[in-house]
Specification:
EC 6.1.1.1; ATP binding; Tyrosyl-Transfer RNA Synthetase; 3 domains; protein biosynthesis; 6-stranded mixed β-sheet; Structural Genomics Hypothetical 15.5 Kd Protein In mrcA-pckA Intergenic Region, Chain A; cytoplasm; alpha/beta; 44% helix; Rossmann fold
């Protein structure tokens, strides 16, 4: 028996507000609901993943999710949460973003089966509509007073808002009406900052269709323990695209979250059930690093796949686990070694210099500056501090040769337990 969607969201702390009657409607059978995504960025982020998780829980509860891609609304720009006018994107950029984001969503929801997800582009609602049609068929049904009452508008009264952004809530309301008519979609969901736009849609449907009943549900915005918005690392957004945020950095993001955020993050992002999450918290409450690793593994596999997770985990082991073995280093593929070279200090040396080999003292002091002088390099070797590809170097006469290269390109040098370097021969 499938768990109630509302019960699922309640224990996860993922309900911020809802209109009356939602729970009763959901209990009556399979319901169709949607969330909209505007393609203003080239990829979705883990911030978007919160809303995708809502659709996932909705689908797992036996309901039918619609992903509405904002091919039209993205051309306008949602003013919600913005204190200044957005810079409009070109149509070509928006189309490119939409196609890429749609492909990401298809990997995260089930598009087959009795309650298969549906992906729709709202540009289809407006292709044949001219300005006069919009003003007569859409603008006539929502008053200026009603629109001015919305926070997304009120918060911009001092700084100003163009008619373009002012009209955004009309477009979102009309989206809901189209989905209501064509797909029997009665529920719109989104973040709490979308409440005004969403309820404009329920009001729009009520005024257009006699006896209609449409519903709204919003989730709290995910914030960190320090009150800041969740979803960014020191480098900026954490993207779902592996070319924009590598699987390694994606995995590392979860390993580095604040311990205090773990309960919330498990409830927002894990597909584990209530009793499974609570058991993990009981078993590893004293060991938050293990909890982070379990969550990071689940999410990295879901977003990037098993192989990408294994590579990310192997790189993490090599960089941060002092007990990492030579076998683990030798098993890394070239992309993982390239990634390591980006994460720790690295040096490039002309490969021709390996024809006769490079003495370890020269390699450490003159070719790389890992040691500041030849005497320091000698002392490091004599104190057993130097390893090359996880092999201890104890002979000051050791010569690095082509046969030592990993993938005919790299060597890893360690100076003590914490100082790691990559030397690339090009």
């Amino acid at each position: 028996m499938k768990k109630s969607f509302i019960e699922e969201l309640k224990w996860r702390g993922m309900i911020h507000d809802l209109t009356p009657g939602v729970e009763e409607k959901l209990a009556s059978g399979m319901v169709t609901g949607y969330i909209g995504f505007d393609p203003t960025a080239p990829s979705m982020t883990i911030g978007n993943l919160v809303q995708i998780m809502i659709l996932k829980f909705f689908q797992l509860s036996g309901h039918k999710p619609i992903v509405l891609m904002g091919g039209a609304t993205g051309r306008i720009g949602d003013p919600s949460g913005k204190d200044a006018e957005r810079e409009l994107k070109s149509y070509e950029e928006l189309d490119h973003n939409l196609a890429h984001q749609a492909a990401q969503v298809r990997k995260l929801l089930d598009f087959e089966g009795p309650n298969a997800a549906v992906l729709i582009n709202n540009l289809d609602f407006y292709r044949d509509m001219n300005a006069l049609d919009f003003l007569r068929d859409v603008g006539k049904h929502i008053t200026i007073n009603y629109m001015l009452s919305k926070d997304s508008v009120k918060n911009r009264m001092d700084t100003g808002m163009s008619y373009t952004e002012f009209s955004y809530q009309l477009l979102q309301a009309y989206d809901f009406l189209c989905l209501y008519r064509d797909h029997d979609c009665v529920l719109q969901m989104g973040g709490s900052d979308q409440w005004g736009n969403i309820t404009s849609g329920t009001e729009f449907i009520r005024r257009n269709i006699s006896g209609s009943n449409a519903f709204a549900l919003t989730t709290p915005l995910l914030t960190k323990a320090d009150g800041k918005k969740f979803g960014k690392s020191e480098e900026g957004n954490v993207w779902l695209d592996p070319m924009m945020t590598s699987p390694y950095k994606f995995y590392q993001f979860w390993l580095n979250v604040d311990d205090k955020d773990l309960p919330k993050l498990y409830r927002f992002f894990s597909l584990l059930k209530k009793d499974e999450i609570e058991l993990l918290e009981t078993d590893f409450g004293h060991d938050p690093n293990t909890l982070k690793a379990i969550l990071g593994e689940e999410l990295t596999i879901r977003i990037h796949g098993e192989k990408a997770y294994e590579a990310a985990n192997n790189v993490s082991n090599i960089l941060f686990n002092p007990k990492a073995s030579k076998e683990q280093l030798l098993n890394l593929d070239i992309k993982s070694l390239e990634l390591i070279s980006q994460e720790i200090p690295s040096f490039q040396i002309n490969k021709d210099e390996l024809i006769n080999g490079i003495n370890i003292i020269d390699l450490l002091s003159e070719k790389t500056k890992i040691n500041s002088s030849r005497s320091e390099a000698r002392r490091s070797i004599e104190s057993n501090a130097i390893s090359l590809n996880k092999d201890k170097i104890t002979d000051i006469a050791f010569v690095c040769k082509s046969s030592d290269l990993l993938h005919d390109r790299f060597v890893m040098i360690e100076n003590g337990k914490k100082n790691k370097y990559v030397v690339e021969f090009v």
